[in-house]
Amino acid sequence: MKLCDLTLATPEENLACDEVLLNLCEAGESDELLRLWALPEYFVVLGYANKAATEVNLPYCHKHTIPVLRRCSGGGAVLQGPGVLNYSLVLRMDHCGPFHSIHATNRLILERHRDTLAPLLMAPVEWRGQTDLAIGGLKFSGNSQRRHRRFLLFHGSFLLHLDLSLVEKTLPQPSRQPDYRLNRSHSDFLINLNVPPHALKTALAKAWKATIPLAPIPLDLITRLVGEKYALDEWNLKF
Q1: Residues near 173 by Cβ (< 8 Å), separated by ≥ 6?
Q2: Closest CA to 235 of 109, 80, 72
Q3: Single pTM value for the model
Q4: Start-to-end CA span in the chain (Å)
Q5: Is 194 helix (H, G, I), strand (E, B) or coil?
Q6: Which of 16, 32, 172, 175 has the most Cβ atoms closer than 10 angstroms to its Cβ?
Q7: 164 and 193 in contact (C-beta within 8 Å)?
Q8: pLDDT in 10s for each residue of the chain, 239 residues
């Protein structure tokens, strides 16, 4: 599998990069890969079908110039920025293979991550809800996917040392939440792992046998998609 440890300059470019890499694989111009990235500035990312006014404290974000953007996959709104490590997997689908359904894909990937992280964290890691990883009922990773005909994108984030008080300010209680959340506030529901980013990167690359550097990076396609989609209010605030 190819490995792409790549953080681009802006939030919009990083979101567009995932979609471009998925599209290239679907077009037969690339193959399975693991991407890792972390951006040192705060921004909010909505799931594909989220309503911005419901899932985000828009007045606070506007006042503090925190961008509100939208990704191409499902799931809920999240705060991104310092203290968050992101990963993206682009994987080949086969209707008779391990990724034949959304649930099967969730199970295979999250169980692999659970088993990979437990020794590193020296704690029992739980797969909770549909797409969360947690320790002792406290969430540290959320994930989502987008599926094409031949390839899928599965991506998520790990909380390492995110300012949880800022999550409270930027995101209200989500309109949909897993049963195990029990209506807890963000600060009472989330937990930081407090592990070095390089240790987590190494563990994920080993788990997916990702060793071959991805080259070249399709920067022209990413820039084009930002201009056509990820930089536009028509996309980011469409609901």
Answers
A1: 183, 185
A2: 72
A3: 0.96
A4: 37
A5: coil
A6: 16
A7: no
A8: 999 999 999 999 999 999 999 999 999 999 999 999 999 999 999 999 999 999 999 999 999 999 999 999 999 999 999 999 999 999 999 877 899 999 999 999 999 999 999 999 999 999 999 999 999 999 999 999 999 999 999 999 999 999 999 999 999 999 999 999 999 999 999 999 999 999 999 999 999 999 999 999 999 999 999 999 999 999 999 88
